[in-house]
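Q: Given only this backbone (503 positions), what sequence would you predict?
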């Protein structure tokens, strides 16, 4: 999965990290700030596998069409092309040739690749011979497919290997991790991870509240970067993919306290089981290399889920813009006729990972009364709202320009609604009312969401309204699926008929 890092002002951030870790080199600080986006190894290997199957099919098809006259009469070639094209990636997968190490070092895998190719075509030749249908197939085509197909596969692998090595050098195939808790347990864990050959994690630092001999400033050449309170800001400002908690299970109260503070972050959280004396069944563990961990929290959207979500957003947002453009033009004209000022209204809101994003809306208030920070919620018969604005707010048509935000990548079609920076419930900021409020920002905010179609939209004048909205938002995050998104999108027009809380 691709995740864009947040880029800060380099001088400010570098100075901040210098205070946290004086021993950290400037190059290391720059790497933390400008880390390249992570590429999912699972998605990469799946794409390579699909590419090889397609390559084998197209090579055989091209030789067939080029060599055989009237090729359309030889449709019995198609089943053989399909079977071999499916068999090649399946067997290579079983042989471990789609693991990261194999993709990086193609030339060392040529022997295994050639052996598999020879055996596969040998089996195919035997099957064709004993079923007495071999005479139906061109021997020139069979031999050419065998030779050119192997050359095409090796060439494809060399190209993939070059890309994989480049991504590996830039750190895009290695998850960046932070240890929560230092000292002896962290040192033992780091040594075990370094001994593991298939470890795809790079530990960039340690955060620990202890400042005594139990938590030195450097553990196994990994620096301590700060206190746990500073970790949340660090994760939001740099590309961190994984938090590893090294505290023992016996420190239950301390673990609960730490996890309650960290679970709002859009990262995987694992509990080190390497030094634990109490052992669970093997199925209870996940592994980094051969080092065991207990899964505590998972990032909501990873691997294919993230790609499907991005594709859904881009394709549907573009189609909706095309279909709704006449409506949007009509609204724009009505706004210009109804009151002076611009058609669009821009407002800063909290987005993914608590970043500030600029959200577009149709202007619904008089220009001199607009509230860019939403410090005062809109109420029924609010004098700041224009006549046109009252209608488009009730029907949520003022949100349509946010389709542009979706195409830009700031918003998703479906997700927790983005709230203004100073939005309040019962005269308190939302995060002061609901402890887990910022967990909503583990995914991109959306134009519509599970809370909205269940009636929790509009004014939040009581604590209960924002509490229920957050409850529905967290349910959506924990249960996301493509079909869930499509269901919410289908229900959205019907939910807009309920305008009870929309002003």
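A: Predicted residues:
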């Amino acid at each position: 999965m691709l995740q864009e890092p947040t880029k800060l002002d380099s001088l400010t951030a570098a100075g901040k990290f210098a205070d946290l870790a004086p021993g950290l080199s400037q190059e290391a600080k720059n790497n933390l700030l400008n880390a390249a986006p992570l590429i999912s190894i699972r998605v990469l290997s799946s794409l390579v596998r699909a590419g090889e199957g397609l390559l084998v099919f197209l090579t055989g098809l091209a030789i067939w069409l080029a060599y055989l006259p009237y090729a359309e009469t030889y449709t019995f070639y198609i089943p053989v092309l399909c079977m071999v094209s499916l068999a090649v990636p399946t067997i290579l997968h079983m042989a471990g040739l789609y693991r990261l190490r194999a993709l990086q070092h193609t030339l060392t895998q040529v022997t295994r690749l050639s052996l598999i190719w020879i055996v596969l075509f040998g089996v195919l030749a035997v099957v064709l011979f004993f079923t007495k249908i071999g005479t139906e197939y061109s021997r020139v085509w069979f031999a050419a497919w065998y030779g050119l197909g192997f050359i095409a596969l090796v060439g494809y692998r060399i190209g993939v290997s070059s890309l994989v090595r480049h991504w590996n050098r830039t750190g895009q195939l290695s998850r960046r991790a932070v240890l929560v808790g230092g000292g002896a347990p962290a040192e033992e864990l780091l040594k075990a991870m370094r001994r593991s050959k298939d470890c795809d994690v790079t530990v960039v630092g340690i955060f620990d509240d202890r400042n005594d001999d139990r938590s030195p400033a450097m553990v196994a050449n990994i620096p301590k970067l700060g206190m746990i309170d500073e970790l949340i800001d660090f994760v939001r400002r740099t590309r961190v993919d994984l938090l590893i908690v090294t505290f023992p299970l016996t420190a239950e109260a301390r673990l609960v306290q730490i996890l309650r503070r960290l679970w709002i972050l859009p990262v995987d959280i694992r509990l080190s089981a390497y030094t634990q004396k109490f052992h669970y069944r093997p199925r209870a563990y996940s592994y980094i290399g051969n080092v065991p961990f207990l899964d505590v929290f998972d990032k909501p959207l990873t691997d294919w889920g993230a790609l499907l979500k991005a594709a859904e957003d881009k394709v549907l947002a573009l189609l909706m813009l095309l279909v709704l453009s006449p409506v949007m033009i009509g609204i724009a004209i009505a706004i210009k006729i109804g009151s002076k000022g611009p058609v669009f209204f821009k407002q800063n809101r909290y987005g993914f990972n608590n970043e500030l994003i600029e959200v577009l809306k149709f202007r619904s208030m008089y220009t001199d009364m607009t509230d860019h920070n939403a410090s005062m919620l809109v109420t029924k018969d609010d004098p700041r709202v224009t006549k046109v604005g009252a209608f488009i707010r009730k029907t949520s048509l003022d949100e349509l320009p946010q389709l542009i935000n979706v195409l830009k990548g700031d918003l998703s079609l479906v997700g927790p609604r983005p709230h203004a920076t100073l939005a309040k419930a019962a005269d308190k900021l939302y995060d002061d009312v609901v402890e887990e409020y910022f967990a909503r920002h583990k995914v991109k905010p959306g134009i519509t969401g599970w809370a909205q179609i269940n009636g929790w939209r509009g004014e939040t004048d009581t604590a209960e309204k924002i509490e229920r909205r957050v409850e529905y938002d967290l349910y959506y995050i924990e249960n996301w699926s493509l079909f869930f998104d499509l269901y919410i999108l289908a229900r959205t027009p019907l939910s807009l008929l309920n305008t009870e809380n929309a002003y």
